[in-house]
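Listing S7. Sequence submitted for prediction.
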Amino acid sequence: MKAISIPLKLINLQDDGFHLLMEVVVFKEKHLAVLDTGASRSVFDKSLIEKHLSETLQVSDEINAATLFTTTTTIQATIPLVKIGTLKVRDYETVAFDLQSVSDTYQQFGHPPIMGIIGGDILMQYKAVIDYKKLRLRLYKQK
């Protein structure tokens, strides 16, 4: 298996805990995402998805949000390409919801805005290993 190493940024939320951020490329744009091992699946901000995929969206009240961040109506969409480091995930079936309040909270604490949450679906599929000492995420892609 080939290891892909992704740098992580550790942020302190006013001495009340820590979050890991990572860079992802979606719609050929760089964005920051929270690395969330407690999220069952990865999600992206609704406004980002609507901006790029407005014609192909499916709205659902039945999909449960994958994190504790929100409980709003979700959108289903397929992102043609998600890049995490050198990993390319094609035709990624995603769920999107409004992450604006989360992003606003990060910015209030002096941190950059976020556009996504990388969760258990991607972390499990690519056998993720988080190295807090080196602040690296390693993903393993089968050849």
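Caption to Listing S7: primary sequence and predicted structure tokens for the chain studied. The chain has a mean pLDDT of 86. The two ends are 6 Å apart (CA to CA).
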